[in-house]
Amino acid sequence: MMLLWKQLVLLSIFGCLAAPAEDVAFRGPSWKLEPTDLILPISSPEQEATLQCQADGNPTPQYRWSLNGTLIDLRSDYRRRLSGGSLIISSLDRDQDTGVYQCTAYNTWGTIHSQKASLQFAYLENFKSQTRNAVNVREGQGVVLLCGTPMHSGELTFAWIFNEYPYFVQQDSRRFVSQETGNLYIAKVEPSDVGNYTCVVNNSITKERVLSSPTPLVLRNDGAMGEYEPKIEVHFPDSVPAAKGSVVKLECFALGNPVPEISWRKTSGDPFPSKVKLRNSNAILEVPRFQQEDAGTYECVAENSRGKNTVRGRLSFHAKPHWLQTMMNAALSIEDNLAWECKASGRPKPSYSWLRNGEMLAAEGRVQIENGVLSIVSLNLSDVGMYQCVAENKHGIIYASAELMVLAAPPSFSKSPLQVLQKARSGSEVTMECRPQAYPQAISLWKKGNEILQRSERITLFPNGTLKIANVTRRDGGSYTCIAKNQFGTASAMGRLLITEPTRITVGPSNMEIIVGESIVLPCQIAHDPALDVSFSWAFNGQLVDFDRDGDHFERVGGSIAGDLMIRNIQLNHGGKYVCLIDTDVEHMSADAILIVKGPPGPPETVLVEEITDSTAQLSWTPGRDNGSPITGYVVQARTPFTVGWQAVDTVPEVINGNTLTATVVGLNAWVEYEFRVVASNSVGMGEPSPPSLKTRTEDAIPDTAPTDVGGGGGTKSELVITWEPVPEELQNGEGFGYIIALRPAGSVTWTRAVVSTPGLAKYVLRNDTIPPFAPFDVKVGAFNKRGEGPFSSVATVFSAEEVPSLAPVRTRGRSVSASEIEVVWEPLRSIPERVLGYEVVYWEDDTKPDTVGKVRISANYTAVNISGLRGSTQYYLAVSAFNTAGTGSQSQPINATTKKPPPGQPPLNVKWTLIGSQLTLHWDPVTALETESEVTGYLVLCRRHRHNDVNAITTDQTTAEITLSANDNYVIEIQSLSEGGVGVGSEPIHIHKLSMGARGSGATRRGSAALSPLLLVTLCLALSAAS
Question: Which UniProt keyword terms apply here (predicted)?
Answer without folding.
Answer: Cell adhesion, Cell membrane, Disulfide bond, Glycoprotein, GPI-anchor, Immunoglobulin domain, Lipoprotein, Membrane, Repeat, Signal
